[in-house]
Design brief:
This protein is α+β, with helices and mostly antiparallel strands. The chain has helices at residues 5-9, 112-130; strands at 14-15, 19-23, 27-33, 43-47, 51-56, 59-65, 76-80, 84-90, 102-104, 107-109. It has a single domain, classed as Immunoglobulin-like, CATH 2.60.40.790. The radius of gyration is 17 Å and the shape is elongated. Interacts with LIS1.
């Protein structure tokens, strides 16, 4: 079995003061650096459809309204190696045109170049799903790919 598209093609991260976030067609990943030795009991994380609140040892790290809605009961967080918190949110809208421009409604926006690269990656991921026999992980895309790129679904195979 081959690796998922995002593992083969890499990620396009948006760096933040506390770590980074990135996305695929289906998910948003948040990676938060925490002091080495942090334990799960030091972490408080609330995940709701349009809201996130994360604090470590009583200090707020991330809090606010998410850019778009997520599936509440499919969001998870893990503490890895006692120095990184990884939050995984499942997008409600999972098409290539739904490229989040920021993590929160008014914070942690991707700069224009990163946003462009994120949209390219989601468009290639969409092409991969529509054409499972081909490998788009190393492909380059140009032209009009905003809003998920052209729709080829009506073409005959």
């Amino acid at each position: 079995m081959s690796a998922p598209f995002e593992e083969r093609s890499g990620v396009v991260p948006c760096e933040t003061p506390w770590g980074r976030w990135y996305q695929t067609l289906e998910e948003v990943f948040i990676e938060v650096r925490v002091p080495p030795g942090t334990r799960a009991k030091d972490v408080s994380c609330s995940l709701q459809s349009r809201h996130i609140a994360l604090s470590v040892r009583g200090q707020e790290v991330l809090q606010g309204k998410l850019f778009d809605s997520t599936v509440t009961d499919e969001g998870t967080w893990t503490l890895e190696d006692r120095k990184l918190i990884r939050v995984v949110l499942m997008k409600t809208n999972r098409d290539a045109g739904n490229c989040w421009t920021s993590l929160l409604e008014n914070e942690y926006a991707a700069d224009p170049w990163v946003q462009d690269q994120m949209q390219r990656k989601l468009t290639l991921e969409r092409f991969q799903r529509e054409n499972p026999g081909f490998d788009f992980s190393g492909a380059e895309i140009s032209g009009n790919y905003s809003k998920g790129g052209p729709d080829f679904s009506s073409l005959e195979k």
